Structure formats: C-alpha cells, structure tokens
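Pipeline run #58 for the internal structure catalog. This entry was flagged by the ingest filter as a single-chain record with no existing model, so it goes straight to prediction. Upstream metadata was stripped on purpose; only the residue string is passed forward. Reviewer on rotation: M.T. Logging verbosity set to normal.
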Amino acid sequence: MTEDDIEGLRARIEQLEKADRAKDQFLSLLSHELRNHIHAIRTNAWLIKARARDVDLARPTDAIDRQVVKLSRLVEDLLDVVRVTQKSHLAFEDVPIQQVVASAVAAAQMAVSTHRRELMVAVPDGALYIHADPIRLQQALSNIVQNAVKYSAQQSTVTVRVTEEGGFVLVSIKDHGVGIAPADLPGIFDLHPEGKGERKPNSEGLGIGLHIARQLVQAHGGTVSAASEGPGKGSEFTVSLPLVASPSNSLEDASLTPKGSGALSILVVDDNRDAADSLAMLLEAHGHRVEAVYGGEEAVQRAARGDVQVALVDIGMPTVDGFQVAQRITATPAARDTLLVAVTGWGEKSDRVRSRQAGFAYHLTKPVDFATLASLLATAARRPY
C-alpha cells in the first residue's frame, strides 16, 4: 500500500467519523424536539382527565395517554440506537440492586396493567450494591420485564427474583408465556433476530428492547442470558452483575427530610406556551398555586420575589436558557431556597451534569411521568422553607 493509499484511507475514515457524529447530533436534536411536543400532548390529556366530569371522556383520554407512551418509547428507541454502546453516556454510582429493580418494575407497571398480568418480586432484605448508572440499568431490566409481560398469557405471573452468587448479583425474570424455540435462542438479543416466530404480538417500539438490554448490561460489566424449554413453555432471562462493597455511609439530604406538607407555590417556565399552560393548569387542579411564564428573563424576575417554592424550568429556551435561569435564581438571595427542577427534552448524561452544575436539584426528561412529578412535589412539600 502506497503513502497515497494510506492518506486516502485516513481521509475516508475521517469523513465517516464526521458523518457519524453529525448523524448522532441530528438524532439527539430530533429526539429533543419530539419529546417537547409529546410532553405537551400528554400533559393536556392529563388535564382533560383531571377536569372532566363526563365519564365518557375517560376512555379517549386514557387512549391518548397510552399512545403517547408508545410514541415516547419509539423516540427513546431511536435515541438508544445512538447512545447504547457509548459508555461515556453512563453516569456510574454505587447503588443497591433492589432500588434499580424497584424502579424497573415501576416503569413496567403500565404494561403489566394493560396486559392483565401478575408481577411477583422477590429480593433479599439486605442491600446488594452494584456500580451502575441506575437510570440506564433500570431501562435494561424494564425492557426485559416488559418483554416477559407481552409474551405471557393473561392473568399469568411474571416473577422477578434477585439472588447473590459468587460475588455477583443475579436478576431473574421468568414468565410462563409462549416460550422460545431452541433454534431461536442464540439470536434472541440480536438487533433483528431471525425466526422469532410467534413471539410477535402487537409489537410496540422498534423491537430492539432485548438488544438494548444486552448492550446496557454489557456496558455495566455484566451478562444477560435467555433460557426456554421450547414453544409454549415460558422463558427465563437472567442478568448477572458484579457486586461491590457497600458504601461506608449514605447520609440523607437534609433539605429533603419530610417536615410538613401542603400546597406549593410553583413556577412553570417553558417557551412552549401550550406545554407551560397545560402543566400549570394540571398542577392547579391538584391544589397547587401555579404561575406560568414563557421566557428565562421573566422567570428570573418572578422568582426574585422570593415566594416561589418550586420552579419547573425548561432548558432549551432562546435568549436566556434554563441553565442560565438556574444559575441566576441560585445567585439571588430572595430565591435561593427555590427548589429547581429541570423539565426538558435534553436527557443525556452531559445534560444532567450541566443541570447539577447550574443548580438544579432534579432533572426530568419530557414527556414527564405525572406519578414521578407528583412524588417529587410531595417530597418538596415537606421541605422547610
């Protein structure tokens, strides 16, 4: 190979790497924009359901919410194709596997209810710690649980069991569903497995859940395997992850210690007026005192009055973005105790790091799950102001 050939090859590699980075940036931007619009749709569906007295509206609003969840899943699948193999996108910490499993089970509850399955969870009493990104590992386990739920018969039981073995924690997800043919087992985690046969009921997402799960588990230094005695005999997926020593201490954040409760004074900040207004009305319907503003500068001025307890702030706003809003509110003496929550379409590790650095206590990715937001606000209501 001549020097010219080598130089040409290097130039080609550089072009491909540049094109790959551009593709990743485009998909990330596209996902962010889609999340914003999905968030507005879902919030309005919640609002209609919260305010409507006509029971006939319950069914269509529930249907809207279910379809929004599926659309959101498609967006996440799209983004996962980009980020799943990039370990730099993971935020590792020492966390008990029980906490991750509980989050994964909670995330799968809608699928459990929709498909009329029973979910049994068995975990050890003592905390078993792993070194993991809890959000991404939760996604991996949730993908497997939802897969088990989809391929099980109605009113059957899916069992999630956590055990310890030889320095590893094992998470078993077992169903009594359609099973897997022996010939299909080797390719069950592939991106487009061949011959999945009858394991294709009304599919949701892009059909890459198990592939994503394997990639995420492997990024955590673990393994995942599948076993089945054949069609009609159920299946069992086992995730194995290395254990780490328990942290020497884990002090609770004193600012979040429950101390009282009640309605909150909340500021909703979003340049998307539909999203801001609908979220504000939804929170008002649940008893909070809420004001919506549509720009960063206006948000800083409003918070400076000192009576805002919680600010739900969009990040991607023009002129004064959410990071700047958080920094300026934190630096304002009268607003220093305001609990800052990022509510945004940007959900990568780097975005979360920037949120913490700017002063946000929480980072919620759109479309926000209302149960998660309600739990956060209940905790916030117990803070001393």
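catalog note: The chain is about 45% helix and 15% strand.
catalog note: Residues 207 and 303 are 45 Å apart (CA to CA).
status: ready for reviewer M.T.
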